[in-house]
Amino acid sequence: SRSRLMKAKKEESLYPFYLFAITQLTSGFGSYMTAFATTVWVFEQTGSISQFSFNKFIVLLPGIVIAPFAGLVVDKCDRKTVMVIADFGAALTTLYILYKLHTSDNLEVWDIHLANVLNAVCNTFQWPAWQTTISQLVPKKKLGHANGILEVGDGLLQLACPAITGILMSVVGIYGIILFDLAVFAFAELVLIFCITVPPVQESEEGKKLKEEPMVGQLLFGFKYLFAHTGLLALLLVFSLSNMVTATIDVVIPPLIMQRATPQEFGLVASFAGLGVLLGSVYVALRGTPENKIMGMIPTLAVQGLLLVGAIAPAYPWVIALLGFFYLVFDPIISACSTSLWQSRVPQDIQGRVFSVRSVFGALPMPCVYRYRFEPGSLCFILETSFLSFFLRDFLNLQNLARRPGIYLSLHYP
Percent of the chain beyond pLDDT 70? Predict the structure, then answer.
C-alpha cells in the first residue's frame, strides 16, 4: 500500500515539468532577444512598414504549409527527440546570421528573411512537440496550474527581454545578442537531453484506429477531428479572428513607436506592456484556471475588444504602453484556459496532428494582414471595431449561446 502511494505521488509530481519549463524559458529568453534585435535592425535598415510586415508574412507561410506533416511526425516519433532536432535546426539559422556578420560584416535584409523562414520551419515541428509534451508531464487536473506557470515565464520574457535587448543593442550590437542566444540555447538543450525523462504517450481508441488509415488519411486527420468536434472548431475560429486583429496591431504599432522613439525607449514601452502579461500570469499560476474554461475566456476577450479601440489614439509611446499593459493582463488567462482545454480534451496520441491543424487555423488570417499595404490606422480601425462588435455581441448573448451549444461556441466544455 505504501509503495503504491509513493508511486502515485511520483506520478503526480510536477518536478519534471518544472525542469522542462526552465529549459524552454531559458532558450526562449535568448530567442526572444534575437527576434527583437532583428526586428529593430530590419526597421532601422529599411524604415519601411511594408518591409517590416513582409518579414512577418514569410515567417508564417512555412508553418501553414507543412503543419499537417509536422503533426504526423510529432505523433509518430519521440516528442523529445523532435524538439531537440527542431531546436538545433533553429540554432543553425542563428549561426547563419552570425556567420554573415563575422565573415563579411555585410548582413542584408534578405539574410534575415531567409533565416526567419528556416527558423519558422523548425518552429512548426517544435511547437506541437512542446505543447503535447506538457500533457504527458502534467496530470489533467494540474494543467491549468502548469500553463499558468508557463504564462509567468512568458510574462517575464516580455517584461525583461525588450528593455535588456534595447540597451544591449547600443552596447554589443546584434552580434553580441546572437552570441548570448547561442550560449543559453546550449545550456537548455543539455538539460533537456540529459536531465528530463518524458513519460510514454497514452494510447486512445482513436489513435489505434488511426494506425489503420492510409498516409493521406493520417495527414488530414487533424482537420477531420476538428470538423467532428464543433465546439473546438468554433473556439478555434474565434481565436483566428482574434489573431487577425492582433496581427494588425503587431504590424502597425512597433514601427509607429520607433518613428517617435529610440530603440531603448521602444524596449521600455514593450517591457511595460509585458508587465501586464506578468501580472496576469501570476494570477493564473496562483489561482489556476476556472472550472469552465469557456466562461473564463469570453468576458476577458470582450474587455480586450474594448481596449483595442484605444489603438486609434495618437501613437505616443506612453499611450501605447498603457493600452498594451491593460490589454496584455488578460492574455495569460485566455491562453491558459484555451491551452488547458485543448490538452485535456484531445487524446495524447493524436495531439500532434490536431494541434498542428489548430496552429494552421490560428495563423491563416495573419498573412493577409501582413501583406496588406496600408497607411497606419485605416485597416486597423476597421478590424478593431469589427472585433469589438463581434465579442460584445457574444458576451451579451451567452444565454442564447448556451442553448445552442453545437452551433457556434460549445459552452459545455469545462
Answer: 74
Among all chains, which residue has been given the C-alpha cell 509585458? 274
Exposure b/e, 212-222, CB count within 10 A at least 16 = b: eeeeeebbebb
234-269 residue pLDDT tens: 888 878 777 777 766 666 666 666 667 676 677 777
- Quote the DSSP letter at residue 202: P
Which triple of cell numbers denotes residue 247?
A: 496581427
* Separation between Cα atoms, residue 73 and residue 66, nearest integer Å: 11
Q: What contacts 23, CB < 8 A, 6 or more positions away?
A: 188, 189, 191, 192, 196
DSSP-assigned letters across all residues of 134-201: HHHHS-GGGHHHHHHHHHHHHHHHHHHHHHHHHHHHTTTHHHHHHHHHHHHHHHHHHHHHHH--PPPP
HSE-CB at 125 with a 13 A cutoff on CA atoms is: 24
pTM of the model: 0.75
Question: Length of the chain in residues, anyone?
Answer: 414
In this predicted structure, the answer to whether residue 390 has a pLDDT above a threshold of 60 is no
**Distance in angstroms (rounded) separating the CA atoms of residues 35 and 115:** 11
Q: What is the pLDDT of residue 314?
A: 57
What is d(CA 297, CA 293) in angstroms, rounded to the nearest whole number? 7
Distance CA 149, CA 18 (A): 9
d(CA 259, CA 314): 13
pLDDT, tens digit, for every residue of 182-222? 888 899 899 999 988 888 888 888 888 888 888 888 888 98
Distance CA(127)–CA(55), nearest Å, equals 20
User: 1 in helix, strand or coil?
Assistant: coil
C-beta separation of 309 from 385 below 8 A = yes
Contact criterion met (CB below 8 Å) for 139 and 131: no
